[in-house]
Amino acid sequence: DTGVSQNPRHKITKRGQNVTFRCDPISEHNRLYWYRQTLGQGPEFLTYFQNEAQLEKSRLLSDRFSAERPKGSFSTLEIQRTEQGDSAMYLCASSLDPGQGRSPLHFGNGTRLTVT
Amino acid sequence: GESVGLHLPTLSVQEGDNSIINCAYSNSASDYFIWYKQESGKGPQFIIDIRSNMDKRQGQRVTVLLNKTVKHLSLQIAATQPGDSAVYFCAEVSQGGKLIFGQGTELSVKP
């Protein structure tokens, strides 16, 4: 499977705990995006990387959230001191550089986080 | 601010009929749009895209129409099948390549 891979698929944690999610993008894609989706809503942009550089962060991304892409390949999203409001599906997507013409984002199947 | 919205939250069609899902966008400077299909428990799946220099683009059983005058986008699915049942999102590509999604339309196909 050469698509975007996310792990774990599901995570249940208690309020106040830290969690970390991993995303492996399509190998030739230099752009990587994180989105959050709650039930019945469209995905909301969180942040994105061009290679290893984090170029933009949404105001939705509080100080408790941090994302990294250390070698320009896989990425991790960490949430510290989780709150019940963090419960959502966290989606990762990758694409080629938009400067190369049509470059749709390709999504993984997400990590569903439940904070109890 | 920028926004993308859908006219109908739900759509129910008979198997074999054609489906039309509509979408409005607000940023007249947007030049790239994408339709995604999302099945339960899965991430959005790319269906078709269109650049603003086109007004129509066809894929396999799907057609996207873009009307820049009224800032309207539609997705047409021919001969709708039960496997087409899902939530459909249009997305506007903003500067930097990030997507702005609307709320989505749930398509239900009755056999």
Assembly level: heterodimer
The biggest sheet of chain B, with number of strands, parallel, antiparallel or mixed sense and barrel status, is: 6 strands, mixed
**Unreliable segments of 5+ consecutive residues of chain B:** none
Number of strands of chain A: 11
Which spans of chain A of ≥5 residues are poorly predicted at pLDDT below 50?
none
Q: What percent of residues of chain B adopt helix (DSSP H or I)?
A: under 10%
Average of the residue pLDDT scores of chain B:
89
**Sheet of most strands of chain A:** 7 strands, mixed
Helix- and strand-based class of chain A? mainly beta
Number of strands of chain B: 11
Report the β-strand fraction of chain A as a percent range. over 45%
Largest interface: A-B, 28 and 23 residues
The percent range for helix content of chain A is under 10%
Order of helices and strands of chain B: EEEEEEEEEEE
Number of helices of chain A: 0
Rg of chain A is: 14 Å
* Principal-axes shape call of chain B: globular
% residues in beta strands of chain B? over 45%
* Rg of chain B: 13 Å
